[in-house]
From TrEMBL, chain A:
Gene3D superfamilies: Classic Zinc Finger. Its main location: nucleus. This is C2H2-type domain-containing protein. Residues 199-208, 293-302 have a biased composition (Low complexity). Residues 42-70 form the C2H2-type domain. The lineage of its organism: Eukaryota, Fungi, Dikarya, Ascomycota, Pezizomycotina. Residues 116-138, 151-261, 282-325 are annotated as: Disordered. Coiled coil: none annotated. It is found in: Nucleus.
Automatic annotation (TrEMBL), chain B:
It comes from Apiospora marii. Keywords: Repeat, WD repeat. WD repeats lie at residues 270-305. The keyword RNA-binding does not apply. This is Mitotic checkpoint protein bub3 protein. The lineage of its organism: Eukaryota, Fungi, Dikarya, Ascomycota, Pezizomycotina.
C-alpha cells in the first residue's frame, strides 16, 4: 500500500532538482533552469540578448557594446563572479554543491519537523508514537494476558489457603495500571511471554510485584486443581476447561477460545466482579489517558499556531529609523548644520 | 564598476546629498543640493561622450560645472522655468532662486523655519515651498508683483511632489494633502489672500512617518514611502474602484539570520522615490539599505534591484529623457547622528539605463 504523498516530496526528490548557482533557486527540470539562467543572469542589459553563459555574455558585451561585464546580474552577493563558468548544473564548484545540499537537507528536515509539530501527525512509519490507536488494537490481547496472569495469581493465592499475601487480587490491576499509563507505547513489556502464564507462574520480573513466599506451592496448584475450591462457581461444569458460551461479561470471546481464553473465562466465573472492575478500570484508565493525551495534543497544538503568529508578528523586526522626527530634522539640530537666524541678523 | 552603464561623478559633494534633480531639457544637466551648503551643477556626460572605446579606470566621468554656495545646508532643489533657473530650499528658512548662468542668488520667500521642499510647476508657473513652520508658500516667479500665498498646514511637511495638475504634500501624523495647481494659481492670481482648501485630504496608507512622495507623470496618482521600509501607490481619482486599486508593499528590508534571536527583519527607511518620465508606470525607490529598485506601479511588480551601493541612498532622479538614473549615495543619517559626516563617502552615481530596462512588462 503505497502512501499518498501529500505535496511533500521526500528529501531525495528535492535534492535531485536542478538549481541555479547564481540565485539558489531550484527548478522542475534542467530546461527551465537553463532558460531561467539565460533570462535572469545571462541577459544583456543593453540589447536584451540572452546568452548561454556568463562568459558568453562577457564576450558579447565586449564585442557588441564595447563594454565589460563586471558581475552576473541578479546573483547572490557571493556568486556574482565571472570566474566560474556555469551552464545549467554544470560548472558548479564541488564545495558549493555540498553547501547547497546541506542547506536543502537542513531546510527539508526543519520544514518536516515544523509540519509535524504544526499538524501533530507523527512522521510516516513511526506510528508507535501514536499511543491511543495502538492501545485500542491490542486491547483484547492485553486484557486476556492480564486476566490470565491475574487469574494465576488468584489461583496461587487461593492455593496458599488464603494466607495474607503482599499482592491482593485487586491490587494487581491497580499496581499495573500505572505502568500502563506510564509507558503506553510499550504496553506489553511488563508481561512475560504467554507461555509463562500457562504454567500459572506469576511474572517473575513484573514491576511492583514482590513474589510471595508461597509461590512454590502456587506453582503446583495448577488451575484445574484449585477449580473445585471455587465457592462462587455458579456453573455446573465440572472443570473450567470446557468453554462456557454465554458467559456474562465476555460476549466478545468465541467459545472455541484458546486455553488462555478458557482460563480467563473460568476466572471470570468466580471473580466477575473483579474482572468487570478491571475491565472498567482499564477502559476508564485508557479513556482518560486518551482524552488526556488529546488534550495535551490540543494544548500543544494551540500554542503552536499562536507561537507562529507571534513569530510572524514580532519576527524581530528591527527598524533602522523609528521616530516622528524626520532624519533631516535631527540633522538640523546638530550644531554643524543648524542655522541660527540671530547670527544672520547680526 | 561597470564602466559605461554606471559611473560615479567626479568631484562629488563634500557632505550628504539632500536632493538630486535633472534639468527639464538637457538630459545631462544635474543639480545636487548638499548639506555642505553648496548647490552642485554637473554635466554628467562630458567625459563618457569623448572617451569612446577606451574605458580606462583613470577616466573621470562627468564634470562639475559650478557650485553655488549658500548660507546654510540646502534641503531641496528644483529647476525653474528653464535649465538655467533653480530654486533651493534652505535650512536658513529661505527659498532662493539661483541663476545658474550668472550664479546670482535672490531670496524668493522667507519662512519661519527651515524650508524642507520646493517644487516648481512649469505649466502653472508656480513655485511651492514647504517649510517646517507648517506652511506652504506659493509664488509665481514670473510675476513677482503678486503677493505670495501662504497656506497653513496641519503638520510639518516632509515630502512634496507635483504632478502635472496636482501637488501632494505629505506631513507628520500621516497627513497627506493634495492641492490642485489650477486652484492654487487662481487663488494667487485673485490676490484675495485666502488660502484655498486642499483638493483632497487623505491619511497616508503607511503607518509610519512619510519619507518621500513622487507623482506619476501621467497625473494618475502618486507613490509615498515611509521610514518603515514600505511604499504605497495611490490614485488621485476618489472613486471607489480607483481607491480599491491602491496598495502598499514592503521593500528595502534585509533579513538578518545571524542574530541569536532568530530571523530579524532589518527595516530601512525608503528615502527617495522617482517616477520614470517616459515609462510612467515605472518608479525607482531608494532606501537606507543601499539599494535602488525599479518597480512597475501598474503591474505591481519589481522590475529590478540594482547592485548594492556603498552606503545609504539619499536621493534618486531620472533624467527628463529617462535614459539616466542619478543616485546619491552617502552614509545614512539615521544612525550615528552625533558626529555625522558624509565627507569622502558621498557619491553621485549615474546609471545609464538600457533601452528596456525601465519599461514595464505591462499588467499580467
Amino acid at each position: 500500500m503505497g502512501k499518498k504523498k501529500r505535496g511533500h516530496p521526500d528529501v531525495e526528490e528535492i535534492l535531485a532538482r536542478p538549481w541555479c548557482y547564481y540565485c539558489e533557486r531550484d527548478f522542475e527540470d534542467l530546461k527551465l533552469l537553463i532558460s531561467h539562467q539565460k533570462a535572469k543572469h545571462f541577459k544583456c542589459d543593453r540589447c536584451g540578448r540572452r546568452l548561454n553563459t556568463a562568459g558568453g555574455l562577457s564576450v558579447h558585451m565586449n564585442q557588441v557594446h564595447k563594454e565589460s561585464l563586471s558581475h552576473v546580474e541578479n546573483a547572490l552577493p557571493n556568486r556574482q563572479g565571472l570566474d566560474v563558468e556555469i551552464f545549467g548544473m554544470e560548472g558548479i564548484p564541488e564545495d558549493v554543491v555540498q553547501q547547497h545540499n546541506q542547506r536543502i537537507i537542513q531546510n527539508f528536515y526543519q520544514a518536516q519537523a515544523d509540519r509535524y509539530a504544526a499538524t501533530g501527525n507523527p512522521p510516516p512509519g513511526q506510528g508507535g508514537k501514536n499511543p491511543p490507536k495502538k492501545l485500542k488494537i491490542e486491547n483484547p490481547d492485553d486484557i486476556k494476558k492480564r486476566l490470565a496472569e491475574h487469574r494465576a495469581r488468584m489461583a496461587a493465592h487461593k492455593a496458599a489457603g488464603g494466607a495474607p499475601t503482599h499482592t491482593p487480587p485487586v491490587g494487581a490491576p491497580d499496581g499495573q495500571s500505572p505502568a500502563q499509563s506510564a509507558s503506553p507505547g510499550t504496553f506489553n513489556s511488563p508481561f512475560p511471554p504467554p507461555g509463562g502464564q500457562y504454567a500459572g507462574f506469576p511474572p517473575q520480573g513484573a514491576p511492583g510485584f514482590s513474589p510471595p513466599p508461597q509461590y512454590p506451592q502456587g506453582g503446583f496448584n495448577y488451575p484445574p486443581s484449585n477449580l473445585p475450591s471455587r465457592p462462587g462457581s455458579n456453573l455446573p461444569a465440572p472443570s473450567g476447561l470446557p468453554p462456557r458460551p454465554g458467559q456474562p461479561g465476555f460476549p466478545g470471546y468465541s467459545p472455541n477460545a484458546s486455553t488462555v481464553d478458557e482460563l480467563v473465562a473460568s476466572a471470570s466465573g468466580q471473580q466477575g466482579d473483579h474482572i468487570d472492575q478491571m475491565i472498567r478500570d482499564l477502559e476508564r484508565g485508557e479513556a482518560p489517558a486518551r482524552t488526556g493525551e488529546s488534550a495535551a495534543l490540543a494544548s500543544a497544538e494551540e500554542p503552536a499556531p499562536e507561537k507562529k503568529s507571534k513569530k510572524d508578528k514580532d519576527k524581530n523586526v528591527r527598524m533602522v529609523y523609528d521616530d516622528e522626527l524626520s532624519p533631516e530634522e535631527r540633522m538640523a539640530l546638530m550644531p554643524r548644520y543648524a542655522f541660527v537666524p540671530q547670527a544672520q541678523a547680526a | 564598476m561597470a564602466p559605461t552603464t554606471q559611473f560615479e561623478l567626479a568631484q562629488p559633494p563634500n557632505d550628504a546629498v539632500s536632493s538630486l534633480v535633472f534639468a527639464p531639457d538637457a538630459p545631462s544637466r544635474l543639480l545636487a543640493s548638499s548639506w555642505d551648503k553648496n548647490l552642485y551643477l554637473y554635466d554628467t556626460l562630458t567625459t563618457s561622450e569623448s572617451g569612446d572605446a577606451e574605458d580606462g579606470s583613470g577616466v573621470s566621468h562627468g564634470t562639475l560645472l559650478r557650485t553655488y554656495e549658500h548660507r546654510a545646508p540646502i534641503l531641496d532643489v528644483c529647476f525653474g522655468a528653464d535649465d538655467n533657473e533653480a530654486f533651493t530650499a534652505g535650512m536658513d528658512w529661505e527659498v532662493r532662486r539661483v541663476d545658474l548662468e550668472s550664479g546670482e542668488q535672490t531670496t524668493v520667500s522667507k519662512h519661519t523655519a527651515p524650508v524642507r521642499r520646493v517644487v516648481y510647476s512649469k505649466a502653472h508657473s508656480l513655485l511651492i515651498s514647504a517649510s517646517w513652520d507648517s506652511t506652504l508658500h506659493i509664488h509665481n516667479p514670473t510675476n513677482p508683483s503678486l503677493t505670495p500665498l501662504t497656506i497653513p498646514l496641519p503638520g510639518k511637511p516632509h515630502a512634496m511632489a507635483a504632478s502635472p495638475s496636482k501637488v501632494i504634500v505629505a506631513m507628520t501624523s500621516r497627513l497627506v494633502h493634495i492641492y490642485d495647481l489650477g486652484t492654487l494659481a487662481g487663488a494667487l492670481e485673485s490676490q484675495s489672500g485666502e488660502a484655498p482648501a486642499p483638493w483632497q485630504q487623505r491619511e497616508s496608507s503607511l503607518k509610519f512617518l512619510t519619507r518621500a512622495v513622487a507623482a506619476m507623470p501621467s497625473d494618475g496618482g502618486y507613490a509615498t514611502s515611509s521610514i518603515e521600509g514600505r511604499v504605497a501607490v495611490e490614485w488621485f481619482d476618489a472613486s471607489a474602484e480607483s481607491q480599491a486599486r491602491k496598495y502598499a508593499f514592503k521593500c528595502h528590508r534585509q533579513t538578518d539570520n545571524a542574530a541569536a534571536a532568530g530571523v530579524t527583519d532589518v527595516v530601512y527607511p525608503v528615502n527617495a522615490l522617482a517616477f520614470h518620465p517616459v515609462h510612467g508606470n515605472t518608479f525607482a525607490s531608494a532606501g537606507g539599505d543601499a539599494t535602488v529598485a525599479l518597480w512597475d506601479a501598474e503591474a505591481k511588480r519589481r522590475m529590478k534591484v540594482y547592485q548594492k551601493f556603498a552606503d545609504s541612498i539619499a536621493a534618486v532622479a531620472f533624467s527628463t529623457d529617462g535614459r539616466f538614473l542619478a543616485v546619491a549615495v552617502c552614509p545614512g543619517f539615521e544612525t550615528g547622528m552625533e558626529d555625522y559626516s558624509g565627507e569622502g563617502r558621498t557619491k553621485i552615481v549615474i546609471r545609464e539605463l538600457g533601452e528596456n530596462e525601465a519599461r514595464g512588462k505591462g499588467a499580467k
